[in-house]
């Protein structure tokens, strides 16, 4: 194996991109500066199943997967066939698509809280529509929120980001996800004016069951709407999302990444009375009934219903998590896999946090050299196409990397082993 991964075409193209595209990328979490810049690919040329090839011709087993939307696998044939078939009939029209009804029926069958459903394109659009519906339905302003819901003003106001009008201040308050006392305190403080509690029950780690049950209890006690952001947990933790897995039914939910195996579709769904009220608020997008994504969603939901997709993700994730932990333990590396095994998050737990961050960079660099793409901290997404062969290859790669990390930390030469530019975890500053 050569000392360096050749990603020179990626680097050249990214240099051009930074002249033309602010920060070179459309997605903060895809910015190369957050990975192992210079020693990790930037651009993909093609992808199939669980494998992706970069523009320099290197091939990898992928656990980043577009940050979650790919659930079945890249270019998954039944999905591509459904998209091709619809392509032959048209993408969008002034008339509605029958697929709008077909997908809503499938969502309402699969998702516990869904009595009605409507479509958006991205996650932020979905969560922002849910906020508009909750505020309009209740006639109240305040949202109590834990975690990232997207880039829109509604959510960005929580951290006071540049460009968000001051008028949004005081319309949203954050709480630590598992802290029911903090949530209850906010509910009392803003009694009578809370439109909605919004949470992602599985962000990073799965929330304890009693906490998720506590959300439901507190929402009922304070007569407010409970919304689950299922953009990541949806169709991964279980067919019906985190709400099915926990057995706790929210009033509203938003799904996006897992709906259509990479085609851009978000689903806002929930209680009939709330959803119906939302029909009269200004929530309307040109592309809501775009038929390629709906055809993909329809095919995807059929596959979820018929095949053990989620079971495979949990099973392969568990094998990977156990094997990574064993390799780390053998080498004396303080490493952990957390959260649901269908989408593990991972940590290096050196006392020196700076060292942990640099070790992450070394881990990403050395795993990429051995043909495995991981993401700092996880989430380590898995698809239905991650077969045993891919899992074994990944385990062998990580087994080779852990001793290198141990050696580098012992020798105090982690930095000397990095073939990277400056690492910036820019996304962290965006969410508080
Ligand atoms: C839990 C969660 N909610 C909302 C979003 C926003 O989705 P989008 O980037 O599609 O707007 C994300 C994106 O990563 C997310 O992970």
Ordered list of secondary-structure elements with their pairings:
Blueprint: H1 8-20, E1 44-48, E2 51-54, E3 59-62, H2 77-87, H3 98-110, E4 116-120, H4 123-138, E5 142-146, H5 153-156, E6 172-174, H6 180-189, E7 194-199, H7 209-221, E8 225-229, H8 241-246, E9 252-255, E10 266-270, H9 272-277, H10 291-306, H11 309-331, E11 335-338, E12 343-348, H12 353-369, E13 372-373, E14 378-381, H13 388-411, H14 414-417
Parallel strand pairs: 3-13, 5-6, 5-7, 7-8, 8-9
Antiparallel strand pairs: 1-2, 2-3, 4-10, 9-10, 11-12, 12-14
Helix pairs in contact: 2-10, 3-10, 6-7, 11-13, 12-13
The chain binds pyridoxal-5'-phosphate.
Written account of the structure:
The chain is of the alpha/beta class. The chain has two domains: 8-74 and 308-429, Aspartate Aminotransferase, domain 1 (Alpha-Beta Complex); 92-289, Aspartate Aminotransferase, domain 2. It has helices at 8-20, 77-87, 98-110, 123-138, 153-156, 180-189, 209-221, 241-246, 272-277, 291-306, 309-331, 353-369, 388-411, 414-417; strands at 44-48, 51-54, 59-62, 116-120, 142-146, 172-174, 194-199, 225-229, 252-255, 266-270, 335-338, 343-348, 372-373, 378-381. The strands form three sheets. A seven-stranded mixed β-sheet has the order 4-10-9-8-7-5-6, sandwiched between helices. The protein has a four-stranded mixed β-sheet with strand order 1-2-3-13. Strands 11-12-14 form a three-stranded antiparallel β-sheet. Strand 8 (225-229), helix 8 and strand 9 form a beta-alpha-beta unit. The longest helix is centred in the last third of the chain and has 24 residues, at 388-411. The site of pyridoxal-5'-phosphate (PLP) has 14 residues, from helix 4.
């Amino acid at each position: 194996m050569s000392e360096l991964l050749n990603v020179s075409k990626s680097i050249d193209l990214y240099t051009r991109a930074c002249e033309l595209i602010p920060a070179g990328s459309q997605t903060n979490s895809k910015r190369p500066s957050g990975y192992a810049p210079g020693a990790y690919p930037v651009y993909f040329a093609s992808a199939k199943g669980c494998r992706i090839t970069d523009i320099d011709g290197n091939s990898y087993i992928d656990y980043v997967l577009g940050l979650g939307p790919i659930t079945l696998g890249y270019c998954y044939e039944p999905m591509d066939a459904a998209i091709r078939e619809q392509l032959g009939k048209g993408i969008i029209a002034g008339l509605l698509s029958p697929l709008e009804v077909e997908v809503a029926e499938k969502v309402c069958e699969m998702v516990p809280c869904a009595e009605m459903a409507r479509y958006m394109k991205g996650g932020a659009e979905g969560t922002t529509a849910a906020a508009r519906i909750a505020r309009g339905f209740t006639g109240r302003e305040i949202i109590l929120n834990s975690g990232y819901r997207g880039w829109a003003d509604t959510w960005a106001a929580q951290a006071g980001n540049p460009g968000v009008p001051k008028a949004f201040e005081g319309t949203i308050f954050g709480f630590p996800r598992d802290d029911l006392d903090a949530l209850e305190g906010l509910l009392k403080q803003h009694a009578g004016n809370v439109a909605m509690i919004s949470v992602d029950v599985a962000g990073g780690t799965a929330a304890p069951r009693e906490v998720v049950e506590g959300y439901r209890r507190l929402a009922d006690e304070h007569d407010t709407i409970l919304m689950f952001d299922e953009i990541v947990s949806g169709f991964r933790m279980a067919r019906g999302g985190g709400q099915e897995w926990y057995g706790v039914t929210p009033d509203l939910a938003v799904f996006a990444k897992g709906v259509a195996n990479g085609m851009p579709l978000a689903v806002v769904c929930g209680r009939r009375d709330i959803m119906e009220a939302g029909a009269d608020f200004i929530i309307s997008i040109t592309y809501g009934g775009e038929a390629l994504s709906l055809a993909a969603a329809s095919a995807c939901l059929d596959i979820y219903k018929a095949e053990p997709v989620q079971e495979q993700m949990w099973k392969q994730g568990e094998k990977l998590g156990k094997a990574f932990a064993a390799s780390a333990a053998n080498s004396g590396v303080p490493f952990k896999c957390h959260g649901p095994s269908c989408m593990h998050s991972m940590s290096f737990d050196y006392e020196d946090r700076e060292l942990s961050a640099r070790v992450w960079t070394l881990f990403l660099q050395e795993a990429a050299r051995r043909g495995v793409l991981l993401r700092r901290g996880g989430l380590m997404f898995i698809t239905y196409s991650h077969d045993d062969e891919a899992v074994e290859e990944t385990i062998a790669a990580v087994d080779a990397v852990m001793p290198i990390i141990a050696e580098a930390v012992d020798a105090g030469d982690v930095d000397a082993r990095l073939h990277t530019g400056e690492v910036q975890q820019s996304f962290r500053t965006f969410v508080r």
